[in-house]
Amino acid sequence: MDFYGHTPGAGPSNPQPQLTPQQYTMALQMFQSTSHMPLAPPNYFPHPTPFTPPVIDPALLPTNTDDRITALERELAEMKAEKNATSHDQEPASKRRKKSKTTSPYILKDVKNLSKKQTAVRKSLMRLIKLELSTLTGRIHSDSASESESDSGSPSRPSVVPAMSFDFSSNVDAAQNLKILTRAADLIYQEQYDSTKTTFSLPHKNVSFTHADLIEFGKTSFRNWKRVYKAENDDTAAANRRKQASKGRQLMRRKELKQGRLGAVKEYKSKYKRDPSCILETDWMTDEISAPDTDNENKRKAHRNLLTAAAKLDGDTIDDPVWEILHPAFQSIECSKIKRDLDSIKKKAKEERKKRPRVTVRRIDLGNTHSRIPVGTLWPFMVGLDWYKATIEGNRDLEDEFSMYTQNPKGFGDEGYSADNEEE
DNA sequence: CAAGTCCCTTGAACCGTGAA
DNA sequence: TTCACGGTTCAAGGGACTTG
Questions:
Q1: Do the domain assignments include residue A1?
Q2: Where is this region: Disordered (predicted)?
Q3: Which of A81, A116, A288, A290 could join A253 in a cystine, given CB atoms 3.0 to 4.6 angstroms apart?
Q4: Overall domain count for chain A
């Protein structure tokens, strides 16, 4: 419990708000400085009892951001009144502060050890916060289908004009950004902390969360947006992002390769009487790259030209994607043969299927290899002896990094591990 | 429409740093 | 030292698109 010191479902008997004076003034200042409406005078609210949901005529329920902010300001004013009324008898404040030091202000921040219900609530809160931030900063044009209609009708609708915008050149905790985050969190908190409110929309009623949780979720969204922004506006960031993306794509292609080969294992087993799944580690799969790992535009272009030429692309097809396949340098002939056998089983099964799948990206084999040191522990039959001698042997660091079992699994390497590798 | 292919978005995990 | 936080990297899941 923190900030508003409130737990959903706790009811009106819940203790006083636990805002520290600093937190409180901060929150208040943010609203005073950002809202379009002045704070209502305190005497506007005859009942200073905190968190008793104000009785609102349903017809007057907030419908747009401004209304919601007004409602929120009203609640804040109530909090202020409450705070003033009770600040003298807050003598155990120090005690409380100590207590709050040991307990985390978060409940749902970490997904670990959360129940199913908590995870679900966490997820919807993340959605809500993100949506709220999008609206506040004008990231989205509409959040409903009906909006598009009114867009064309009155293009200058005030609600689509962003009231605030993030400063992506700063971090999350820059005042300007924090202000937006706080406002969004306040709004969502007010709408969702009490399951009896009509604005309540969480999947489970008895799951607690804190204002700090909401802020954290908002920060995550901010960081994602900032990353995108940076990639769009900063060359080195763009390069990083591209690199990262291509790495991710390659990893995914390796995984897909593995997945496909796993599907052929059953038939391979009955045909060859041995289980090839021991070589199906994602990292040991063939690489499928669309460009070499370099920022040098000329090199990338040259590579692309090689591939298009090899794939005989021209005219309409000149821009089609092509990938080069890079076999792992470490693998023995036996290992690559197993992969080939698996792939041909897979291919045959595919052809036998009635439905024709979408055409796949062309793969070109120029006979090149990648020289990544394989992770995990390899079986000896998989490793080419020549490669081992040339690359690993005598290299202290690599000897530590590279690991291999001493025995082959049943059915492999029997035909002669060394003989196999001499050929390579 | 379903299935297959590709990959983007974004939540989660991880890592380094600076404050307490 | 631990803790919290910001930033970076990884990877699940879903969306876009194509084809029969």
A1: no
A2: 1-20, 80-106, 140-161, 405-424
A3: A288
A4: 2
C1' nearest to CA of A357: which nucleotide? Answer: B4
What is the rounded CA–CA span in Å between residue A219 and residue A96?
A: 27
Distance A395 CA to B6 C1' (A): 39
Q: Are the C-beta atoms of residues A261 and A280 closer than 8 Å to each other?
A: yes
Q: What does the block give as tokens for A212? A: 């700090």
Taking the C-alpha atoms of residue A328 and residue A285, their distance in angstroms, rounded to an integer, is: 7
Same domain membership, residue A277 and residue A212: no
Q: Nearest CA to the C1' of C4 belongs to which residue?
A: A104
> H helices within A154-234, ranges in order?
175-192, 211-233
Helices then strands, each counted (H, E), chain A:
14, 6
List the beta bridge partners of residue A137.
Answer: none
Nucleotide closest to A216 measured between CA and C1': C5
Beta partners for residue A324, in sequence order = A289, A364
Condensed to tens digits (0 to 9), the pLDDT of residues A18-51 reads 333 344 334 434 433 333 333 333 322 223 333 3
Its domain, for residue A405, covers 253-422
The answer to whether strand C lies under 7 Å from the CB of residue A104 is: yes
